[in-house]
Amino acid sequence: MKIIFYGGAGEVTGANYILESGDTKIMIDCGLHQGLNFCEKHNWEPFPYDPKTVSAAFLTHAHIDHSGRLPKLMKEGFHGTVYSTPPTRDFANVLLLDSEHMLIEAAERFKLPNLYGVREIEELMAHWKGLKYHESVQVGPFKVTLYNSGHILGSTSYLVECEGKKIVFSGDLGNSPAPIIGPYEMFKEEDDIDYCVIESAYGSRFHDPIPEGAIEDVIEGAVKAGGVLMIPAFAMERTQKLLFEINELIENGRVPRVPIYLDSPLAIKVTEIYKKYPEYFDADTRNLLRGDNMLFDFPGLRRTLTADESKSINEAPAPKVIIAGSGMSQGGRILHHEKRYLPDPKSTILFIGYQSKGTLGRQILEGAESVRIHHETVPVRCRKVTIEGYSAHADQGQLLAWLEPLRFSLRKVFTVQGEEEGSGELAKRIINDLAVKAEAPAIGSVYDLT
Q1: What string of H, E and C letters represents the secondary structure of 192-257?
Q2: Could you tell me if 431 and 366 lie in one domain?
Q3: Which residues form the domain of 378?
Q4: Among 77, 246, 179, 170, which Cα is nearest to 400's?
Q5: What is the pTM of this model?
Q6: pLDDT, tens only, 284-302
Q7: Are the beta carbons of 405 and 380 closer than 8 angstroms?
Q8: Which tens digit of pLDDT belongs to each residue from 62-73?
Q9: 110 and 246 co-located in one domain
């Protein structure tokens, strides 16, 4: 058995791993390479393997850096089955369709043909099969079983058994326990895992706890000032966590009832998928649903699906709260609101996610006096607030704790899906703290697991 690292090695995005045994190849993830731009040019390069030879693909979760090249794989000859949990399939469908216009813009910028289109996405969905946690599927000599990785709803770690050996792919592990979905699943010492491919996005970092009442304080402050609270948020997972928390505050009368706009068509669609799968919620959330709590529907929440509905937000007097994408202010409807309200000293912009270097969100957070939006110079006079701790990724301590029960059987751990510092630091900690061989592989690396 061999493992080849075709993506996600030495980089956070583009996850793509292949296991080979005899004439059978299976794939874990097939993600888009992303940087400061939504899509990097080398996504157009041919796959370094023949997609026709891949028997099956297993998706850990729907985020585009894990799913974004699956339609391209289909376009170039893949005829196997894609497996994941049912929520992951549904999320991937809406995320891939939503990404199409950005990929068309990228293709025009690079002067290349479209990476893929709606037809390939539809064909992909026709080849997709949903599996439940702890369900197994046999693909040639490979037996593959699903476990909850606690990252987003339906996210998965995979246990692969072949040639008398066991290898685990962590997928993205959650900042456990996560609201709504609860903790990730732990493997046990008696599982006798031989190898592990583990993510390392926060391999060198630790999360600060979210200060108690932080969101409550920001909303109250914005209302008292009589301004607008803008929250750039990613449509998937971050928005649902935020709605969950605001729901609790509203239901318990802890914040004033003001209009709260969810101004993101994608976030609205993703939230509807959440509602479709309550069996994937943790026990506490399921208990809430047994009462009258609607979870993502509370007094004052207004969903603005169309462009006209979005424009009507301007007519509503302050105070009000606007949640819109994108999470780093690199596009989407949040830009229209920032253009209007960043110059207002009474208004507030709240960042609840990491703002990458070079993004508009990072510029605002670092104190830029003005920014460029839609080719216009916009003064930044509003209050700026950031709340750490909303990450959906496990930090270094959680990653090591997840691995610790396996230390006596593990032959080697591969650290992936992180920047060089994170992957390298986590590998060192695994060696020193757990006495297990560990390595941050390079792109194209091949390892014989026999």
Answers
A1: CCCEEEEECCCCCCCCCCCCCCHHHHHHHHHHHHCCEEEEECCCCCHHHHHHHHHHHHHHCCCCCC
A2: no
A3: 214-386
A4: 170
A5: 0.93
A6: 888 887 765 677 888 899 9
A7: no
A8: 999 999 999 999
A9: no
